[in-house]
Amino acid sequence: MENQLRSKARQRLDERLSELKPEDRFKAPPKGWIRAIREALGMTGVQLADRMGVSPQSINALEMSEANGTVQLNTLRRAANELECTLVYALVPKTSLEGAVGQRARKIASRELARVAHTMKLESQETDHADIEARTETYIRNSLEGARSLEREVTDLFREPDDATPLAPEEREGLKQSWITHRRDLNEAEEENILKGSAWAHHRRGLKATDLLDETFSIVLHKRMFGDVWKWAGSYRKTERNIGIEAYRIAVEVRNMFDDVKYWVVHATIRPMKSRCACITGSWQFIRSRMEMAGTQD
């Protein structure tokens, strides 16, 4: 019921605001409405200042603030009244209010269903474009109608979850999946990929702890853990960053690290039963911190 009332309110506002389109007709003159109308009336700044009860310098500042877009509405209304005018104030949608809600619903639906489509693709159950479009329309319709299965109000369409921060263009460089546009998407994709890579490593039979402490194995492991998400998975950073060591030292430091840990394992510094798991988790965390996106590589 509440969603229906909102829908009717949007329709009524759209009807009223449609009369103001195209809004370019009301574009302010380069020096602002106050100065344009004042000069058209043949009124000096001193005369307008007298009518408003302010100094002539204040009128000059007022006209400049209007031209710069920093004027206050109540001040602009006072000036309009002394110029025998009425201040008209409105927010005109770029499309329509109904269109804005529909676009927002489609954006959310596309983001939610893209994750489903990605999972189905991994399971060899990829759907065609027509099916995805039908799912999107159903999702939007249920969202706008407030279906009980979704328990979503229209206002929820504009409420961003805590992990819905959009990724900046530089943060998306090197991504393989186009549906990853927000931090939440990236977290989910990386978590899924890491679990796959971890399962692969833990099921490698016949490997000793020292076999895992190898640069080549760690690079392969890194690619297994991030290769579904990032193009740069399994490669070393080649540019300098504010954190971490210099790029030219990465390979040497990785080999030194493995040599040290091998020594600890061989000489029983690390308990044998725990060493294998420690090597798997430790090695990929160490190397990941020294690998960056391919977009920053030379």
What are the salient characteristics of this protein?
298 residues, mainly alpha, 0% strand, elongated, 58% helix, 13 helices, single chain, 3 domains, 434 Repressor (Amino-terminal Domain)
Outline:
This protein has 298 residues and is mainly alpha-helical.
Question: Your description of this structure?
Answer:
The protein has 298 residues and is an all-alpha fold. The protein has 3 domains: 61 residues, Orthogonal Bundle (434 Repressor (Amino-terminal Domain)), CATH 1.10.260; 69 residues, no CATH class; 127 residues, no CATH class. 58% of the residues lie in helices and 0% in strands. It is built from 13 helices and no strands. The longest helix has 26 residues. The relative contact order is 0.07.
Oligomer: single chain
Order of helices and strands: HHHHHHHHHHHHH
Tell me the major beta sheet. Answer: none
> How many DSSP H or I helices?
13
Q: Structural class from helices and strands?
A: mainly alpha
Helix content bin = 55-70%
Point out poorly predicted stretches.
147-153, 287-298
How many domains? 3
Rg over C-alpha atoms, rounded to the nearest angstrom: 31 Å
Mean model confidence by pLDDT: 78
Beta content comes to under 5%
**What is the overall shape?**
elongated
- Count all strands and give the number: 0
Span of the ends, CA to CA: 58 Å
